[in-house]
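Subject: mismatched residue count in predicted assembly?

I count 809 residues in my input, but I want to confirm that the predicted structure covers every chain. Input:
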Amino acid sequence: MDYGLTAEMLARIQFAFTVSFHFIFPAFSIGTASYLAVLNGLWLWKRDPAYLKLFEYWKTIFAVTFGMGVVSGIVMSYQFGTNWSVFSERAGAVIGPLMGYEILTAFFLEAGFLGIMLFGRKRVGDTLHMVAVVVVAIGTLISATWILSVNSWMHTPAGYGIDANGNFVPEDWWAIVFNPSFPYRLVHTVLAAFLTTAFVVGAVGAFHLLRDRTNRQAQIMFSMAMWMAAIVTPMQIFAGDMHGLNTLEHQPAKIAAMEGHFESHPDGAPLILFGIPNEAEQRIEYGIEIPKLSSLILKHDLNAPLEGLDAFPEDERPPVMIPFFAFRIMVGIGFLMLGVGVWSLWARYRKTLYTNGLLHRAALVMGPSGFVAVLAGWFTTEVGRQPFTVYGLMRTSESLSPVDAPAVGASLTAFVVVYFLVFGAGVFYLLRLMKRTPMVDDDHELDKGPHRAAGINPGPAQEDTIRAGASSHGH
Amino acid sequence: MAIDLPTVWAGIIAFSVLAYVVLDGFDLGVGILFPFFPHRGDRDLMTNSIAPVWDGNETWLVMGGGGLLAAFPVVYGTVLSALYMPIILMLLGLVFRGVAFEFRWRTIRGSIWWDVGFWLGSTVAAFCQGIALGALVQGITIVDRSYAGGWWDWLTPFTILTGLAVVIGYALLGATWLNLKTTGSLQARARTLSMITGAGTLGLIGIVSLWSPFINASYFERWFAFPAAYYSAFVPLMLAGCAFALWQGLTADKHLQPFLAALGLFVISFVGIGISFYPYIVPTALTIEEAAAPDSSLQFLLVGAVVLIPVILAYTGYAYWVFRGKMDPEEGYH
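Triage response: the counts match. Full output below for your records.
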């Protein structure tokens, strides 16, 4: 069962697996919640049924995503104790209250108003329903704020003391919550969530425009998504750059790993565009480098010295392979997103936004790009924090529960099987929901059947989906 | 500092766990009862009756865990290590249960499988929670503030019994909830199931109560020492009162009373467990005082808890109010 892997490695794989699966859902639902608030607001303001239709359309998708986010999140909240009990005990007094605030200020808020948002329009009226939609959207952002504060504290711990038992104790809550990397990580992650949603919405819009370029709902979706791509991507690239500079200040070893700098460069470090890190021999193979550019980007000076991994003790260096490649994937996708955003501005200017099939195909391909970029970003920063859980203070190897490898291996196997089964089915259903053509004229869906009156759970929508799918094949 | 922060926090966590048990208890119970309702239409109504509230109900479980991590990190670490397998199984059960709410609407052919998942997930989650309770009651081996027992310590005849008790108890909550929220043949069946699970719950409460003192002598002493003896004298009386209210409500075709009576059974049992535990948080291994996080942590989160928990209760109550009344299968309810 353990394939010779240590309990520590298995527990790390388990955490990486469950948290990666989990984060896919909030990365999408944070943006979708805000998008729904905008759509519902536009419907109430303009009374244009296209917006109501879009709201109902994305609401169902949101409900499925949110449910998966909740259940995979509950797993996370208990995994600290099952696999990382020593970490929980030593850091609990600091990170526990922050998570407590996340639960009190966000989880209950989202859960309390989600029911009204999804099922309650008819029961509470438009105004209170709108309040519920906005509250759910704000709840997702509050949740992100607290959990990113926790995560950032593990990267850049501040405001703590260490007691006689070796436990972290809080000394200055303000410093703990607003630890040095938190503002950067928060902005970078929330913008990433918005972009992830924008590219999914854009891809769904593009998909339906490719079938019928006159579909007004598809036009609205696509246009809104492309505005987001054009405006938010440059902001995100700027925020990412700031985050990188912050990391250089507080976690220089991580930057060295991301950049692939095994050696220090006292007078100007090159930017390694591509290459294959050889960790055994501590060098980059097949590297394509631009001299001095790394120093220019990170220090705004061509000849500024930059520390490589050799500047750090061997047992404090992060692995290089994953941060190096993951970082390049993230940045590459960022620039592709920028390209699509600029292209859409050009198409808009040329008035071909809804007719440019090539742009629509590009947007369709870019649909899942946000998820890939988000996960790549998290792999960069989390692997880059190794070999520590609390950076510089507590090692990952010291954080583990007193568990045996077979127990962790068995639970890891169970998680892998269940997650692929459950979330695989979930993603399949989501794609099928996104395949439905967003129609307004075809309004039977709003009138027929008990569950549709207020647009809840259009259960038998399944049949419509199949029919819509079948008819589209006929074209 | 006049107030004793660790005790206050133990109270808040106990309240969260109780809120979880009674609230998610009834919606897990609805899932446990799925096999007794062969018509898909009935099961649609059953899930719709809990769809708007289940997420809020389950949040109390996260609150219990999160509160434990914040206020009693050592308990969070050791107990979850000790209960490794039942906790993981419970989480996987909750995964199946939680996604089924939406997934069962997204497919026709596959729907029955998500209904099976809903039933199995609910049952496994409930059973594992009962096992966790039983394992805590029978005691967890802790040396030097970390778990020192084996990986199968949680599996004993006693914990299997408590697991079964929680499954049947949740089924009672679910059945009385359905009696409250539905009409017609669905309600009639729920009433019959309430009777059966009610009798089962009372029987199992009795067996567990009689067995516990033999597991750990300190429980025995506690229950027959003052001041707990006052309460212990009243427990059988209060349980009998709830049992009567349950029986009378069901036979007289009352709708709310049986649900409240079932909740009463849970609250009384829960307080009884609390009396057995105090002042320990992990019986005979860790007291509330010695397991507590530093006062600065307890204080920081207490400010938020004192302000926010009443607000949470208010809007949760409002959400229940919005979706009050009987489910109407004709017109649809949402």
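Chain A has 16 helices and six strands. Marking this ticket as 'not a bug'.
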